[in-house]
Amino acid sequence: MATKETKSSRQARIAEMRRAEQARERRNKIAAVTVSVAIVAGLVGVGAYLLNKESDDKDKQQAQKAADAKATIAGEKDWDPKKLGRNHVTKTVSYPMKPPVGGDHDQVWMNCGGAVYKKPIPDMNAVHSLEHGSVWVTYNDKAPAADVQKLSDKVSKTPYSLMSPYQDQTGAIMLSAWGKQVTVTSADDPRVNQFFAKYVQGAQTPEPGAACTGGLDQK
């Protein structure tokens, strides 16, 4: 009889151990699922935050561009567009300002789809690019190399813009559009962004939407 009770007791203990093991496995599964849900929820939350942040950043950038486009640019020089000739000519034009901001010009424009020229380019072709709504960034040997590089990076990413050295200009760094021009102190001068926002295909453009590729290329 004692032997039977011992076997029965042993079986009971084994059954109890199995129940405990099963309960432990259930708890582990529940914990794993809970952790997984928390991780997924966290990832969703992070993703939503990043999307919202990206959207907010884009909204801020657009708002800043809109503000720059309306801003008055300190030190800007203006010429009456009605007094700037727009004829296509073959005879060399002597422009009253350097770099020129408008006037009669060559029938072929300089390519200006974010073109960075390492050598001087012809005035008469560059003026034609301005007529198409481009911004022309020029610099002389007084401009710091770091500023030249920053401006090169900006121009190369901006359709309807071009850049070239121009030794005869009075300022180290100058920006020109049709009838508009400003001298800036550095590539980080806030007027650079203002000028681009306002005059790349801006209201001053005599021929908005005209081609900036398929013209003269000189690199």
UniProtKB/TrEMBL annotation:
The keyword Membrane applies. Keywords: Membrane, Transmembrane, Transmembrane helix. Residues 1-26, 55-87 are annotated as: Disordered. Residues 1-25 have a biased composition (Basic and acidic residues). It holds the Pfam family DUF3105. InterPro entries: DUF3105 (IPR021454). The keyword Transcription does not apply. The chain crosses the membrane at residues 30-51. This is DUF3105 domain-containing protein. The lineage of its organism: Bacteria, Bacillati, Actinomycetota, Actinomycetes, Kitasatosporales.
